[in-house]
Write a structure and sequence with these properties.
With about 500 residues, the protein is of the alpha+beta class. Helices cover about 15% and strands about 45% of the residues. Strands 3, 4, 18, 19, 20, 21, 22, 23, 24, 25, 26 and 27 form a twelve-stranded antiparallel beta sheet that branches.
Length: about 500
């Protein structure tokens, strides 16, 4: 039989399976016979357990390389710059911890007004009997001694807060002694709460009595000029916001999830009772106290923490000795050099033309130094290119797995694991052999990650990444035991 036998190559890789057939011209062979030969040859060369015909053809195999040897992470602690302190939670209080440092927190906030006061029109102004701020504190957000006596004071702001606000904001000049609305001595504990309510409640409520005269003024304003409260901008001109400061106590810091401002008013309620002796009913008017919420802190308007942290000598001494400490809020970040150049050089030595990068990951052990205040590690860590960190927070970006990455802390492994760095190294390989030093310099920052579940309920995605300002936190990062794992597949043809 004249002609040439078809050449068939089965390529198996991590890419989708491809079957390539290279065929030279055949002569003196009917087409249907040629087709039968091709089909038989394809199956024989791809399935060696059926026939030995494929043994004479080109053979290959896929080799998966997992390399974690020789890649070293180096880093050091650096004082955190001023941070964007806008947050959905507001920290208040002061602590002084030998292993951590001295932290003092207060906050300023614009307020979101109710567009309509939900009180009956029949209630007269002279029924107003009080004005109150009620703070809601999740029980899990209290750091320190919950029985320690504290005292706070609430001021009405006298001018608008700046939009470009940071944790170093000084409220001096934004309030006056005359704008004091009220003070409150309190403890962040179950004192005064029944055992049943304490067990069943996940929150602590702290009421703060404010100026009754201010409550009367606001009540009248709702009645006479309701348009004042129609839009946040017009309301802010009337009531710029509040400054809440802790002016006594160093034993506790707590994070407030919401502050509601309520007007209290008296209302007469009819009560009917039955007299058994004369079989008659008696109706009396009983005075009760009702409340209506007129405005509150909310994510839609600005709230910002004023944070001052002075790290303890134990922390600063450890940093001076070369230990890598991260500390929040507004304490220490860590700068690291990620060995991208070494990874790429090793990859080029071992890979061929048919190679695929599978993954790149980084794991860093971390522990919180022992302390009596229960201060632990930050729940999440952001690793962002140092040159892009300022812009990242200013523009409210989220990690993109190319120049910024995030990791949750694992109590099981006692480490942070950045598991999705593949796109980062792929882009650098595509740029050429030499890596710009700027592309290897990163900063690690304690952050709060906010996620939402997708519509199908099968996964979640990040919606916000902000500096961690929920409670004090710190950790020692063990750079010597950090593990970088680089995985790629290559095809070897025999």
């Amino acid at each position: 039989m004249s002609g040439t036998k078809p050449s068939v190559l089965c390529v198996i890789s991590t890419r989708p399976f491809h079957l390539k057939v290279r065929m030279k011209r055949f002569t003196h062979i009917p087409f249907y016979f040629l087709a039968a030969i091709m089909i038989a040859t394809i199956f024989s060369s791809c399935q060696d357990d059926i026939s030995d015909i494929g043994n004479s053809l080109t053979r290959d195999e896929v080799v998966i390389t997992i390399d974690s040897v020789g890649f070293r992470l180096s880093g050091k602690s650096v004082a955190a710059p001023v941070i964007d302190a806008r947050s959905t939670t507001n920290m208040i209080g002061e602590i002084d911890v030998p292993e951590y440092g001295r932290l003092k927190c207060s906050f300023v906030a614009r307020l979101l007004s109710a567009t309509n006061m939900n009180a009956p029109d029949s209630i007269p102004v002279d029924s107003v009997c009080g004005f109150q701020m009620k703070l809601t504190v999740p029980r899990s957000s209290v750091t320190g001694d919950s029985l320690a006596p504290q005292k706070l004071q609430v001021y009405e702001l006298t001018k608008q807060l700046p939009d470009s606000i940071t944790n170093a904001f000084d409220p001096t000049g934004y309030y006056t002694p005359e704008s004091l609305l009220g003070t409150k001595s309190y403890t962040a504990s179950a004192a005064g709460i029944t055992d049943t309510k304490w067990v069943n409640s996940s929150q602590i409520k702290i009421p703060v009595d404010l100026s009754k005269d201010k409550g009367v003024e606001i009540f009248k304003r709702y009645r006479e000029n309701p348009e004042t409260f129609s839009w946040p901008a017009t309301f802010a001109k009337y009531f710029p916001g509040v400054y809440v400061d802790n002016n006594f106590g160093r034993g506790c810091v707590m994070s407030i999830s919401q502050a509601n401002f309520n007007i209290l008013y008296k209302v007469g309620v009819k009560e009917t009772s039955y007299n058994k002796e004369d079989s008659t009913y008696h109706t009396v008017i009983v005075t009760r106290i009702d409340t209506v919420t007129v405005f509150a802190t909310a994510p839609e308007v600005l709230s910002s923490n004023n944070i001052s942290l002075r790290p303890s000598s134990m922390v600063t001494d450890a940093v001076d000795k070369g230990e890598v400490i991260i500390q929040s809020p507004a304490g220490y970040n860590a700068t690291v050099r990620f060995p991208a150049q070494e990874i790429i050089d090793k990859y080029r030595e071992q890979s061929g033309n048919l190679s695929v990068i599978n993954n790149l990951s980084l794991s860093i052990p971390a522990v919180a130094p022992d302390n009596d205040f229960g201060i632990g590690v930050p729940p999440s860590l952001l690793m962002v290119k140092t040159s892009e960190m300022k812009e990242f927070f200013e523009k409210n970006k989220i990690p993109d797995d190319k120049t910024s990455f995030w990791a949750n802390y694992s109590d099981k492994t006692k480490s942070y694991a950045f598991s999705s760095m593949r796109d980062y190294i792929v882009e650098l390989i595509q740029q050429g052999n030499e890596v710009d030093p700027e592309d290897m310099e990163f900063t690690m920052v304690p952050v709060l990650i906010t996620t939402e579940t997708d519509g199908s309920g099968s996964g979640s995605y990040v919606t916000a990444c902000t500096p961690y300002q929920v409670r004090p936190a710190f950790a020692r990062l063990d750079m010597e035991k950090a593990e970088i794992r680089f995985t790629f597949s290559r095809q070897q043809i025999y």
